[in-house]
Amino acid sequence: MNFAQKHLTSLLRRMSLDATLFWSLENIRYLCGFTGSDGALIYADEERIFLSDSRYEEQARVEVKGAVFQEYKKKIEGIAQVLRSLRVKRLGFEASALSWESYQRLKERLPRVNLVPLAGEMAALRARKEPDEVEKIRRAIGIASESFRDTLPRLKPGVREKTVGDFLEFRMKHRGGESSSFPVIVASGARAALPHGKASAKGIEKKEMVVIDFGARYEGYHSDETKTVVLGKPEFRQRKIYDLVRKAQERAMRAIRPGESVRRIDNAAREIITRAGYGKFFGHATGHGIGLAVHEAPTISPRGSGVVKEGMIFSIEPGIYLPGWGGVRLEDLVLVTARGCEVLTYLSKELKDNILMG
Question: Cis peptide before 298, with omega less than 30 degrees from 0?
Fold first, then answer.
């Protein structure tokens, strides 16, 4: 029994549920292997039933493992019919995935069933990664990292941010990625103060810092990494901000161990930046989980909850963003191990290795 099965078995019993209805495609893929764009999964203590329409019958018969396929003509009616046949009285459902309209329609057709919303209980479902998931994320990292190296010669003064981003996305697909994890972020000069600065038509200029956030998807699993490079010899302030962010990242990584609070890990990075007087310029979380979705549990932030566990993979990505000047973000993915963490991303974050003099 894997992490997810143990979690669901415990959840069903703890909340006295007869079954759980899965609606999100990421969780459906995770639990039964289906990669199509529509369907539902009913997960009961003894039975697993995947439902979809006739478009996906052959695909489901090939892909779906550990669940019986059942076709429906109309989605809500088909789900309700199966639940009635299973005599379900208490049904858990993904609160963040089921729309209000679908919830109301399901409730109308199942007046005697108690529908129990599951929110935080679902967040932890995919948080701990199985060995095969770790390997897929490693493959995604490799595709993205080598594609970044392919792109480096194009990072020159005068080249537009969008040209760099488009080429990096092209290389990730060429190297075997299904797609990029998200539109590549390329933000140079003052635009680097935008944490999610979409690649623009702006030309990159000499002596500017450039924040590049990128990732690849491989067999459904994502990578995510951020490099900050300098086009030319860094000035004093550039070096100071970069070194401060790097110090914060290293401090957070050293704090990682099974059982450690996500808030403590966040604070390890945030304290370094705050003490240096830049706390108000670091406004986002220190990290987020990654897997079938780019952002999933755990959340490493001052408002996060819980502790990290062996097998979790998440980012450590502190940043400082100074309006009108620019910014620095450094992001790596880490795997929680029995004694600490393993850094999965391998492109150097040392400043000396991110100075482009060409």
Answer: yes
Higher pLDDT, 200 or 45: 200
What residue type is assigned to position 103 of the chain? Y
Residue 289 in 3-state DSSP? Answer: strand
Can you give the pLDDT at residue 107? 96
Q: Mean of the pLDDT values across residues 269-289?
A: 98
Give the start-to-end residue ranges of the domains of the chain.
3-123, 131-356
Amino acid at 276: A
Closest CA to 167 of 140, 148, 193, 181: 148
Rounded-to-integer distance, Cα 37 and Cα 25, Å: 7
Burial zone of 122 (CB within 10 Å; 0-12 exposed, 13-18 middle, 19+ buried): buried
Bridge partners, residue 355, by sequence: 230
Distances (CA, A) of 239 to 176, 231, 242, 262: 35, 13, 5, 29
| pLDDT tens digits, 22-34 | 999 999 999 999 9
Question: Quick count: other Cβ atoms within 10 Å of Cβ 99?
Answer: 9
Per-residue pLDDT tens digits for 67-96:
999 999 999 999 999 999 999 999 999 999
Fold of domain 3-123: Creatine Amidinohydrolase; Chain A, domain 1 (3.40.350)
Instruction: Just give the CATH number of 131-356.
Output: 3.90.230.10
Give me the pLDDT at residue 71, please. Answer: 95
- Tell me the three-class secondary structure of 225-238, residue by residue: EEEEEEECCCCHHH
Q: Which alpha helices (H) appear in the chain, and where do they start and end?
A: 3-14, 25-32, 57-63, 75-85, 100-109, 120-123, 131-151, 161-174, 236-255, 262-275
Q: What one-character-per-residue DSSP string does 188-199 give?
A: EGGGGGSTT-B-
The residue assigned the tokens 């850094």 is 343
Strands 114-118 and 90-94: parallel
Hey, how many other C-beta atoms are within 10 angstroms of the C-beta on 13? 10
Is residue 320 over pLDDT 70?
yes
- Tens digit of each residue's pLDDT (9 = 90 or more) over 88-147: 999 999 999 999 999 999 999 999 999 999 988 888 889 999 999 999 999 999 999 999
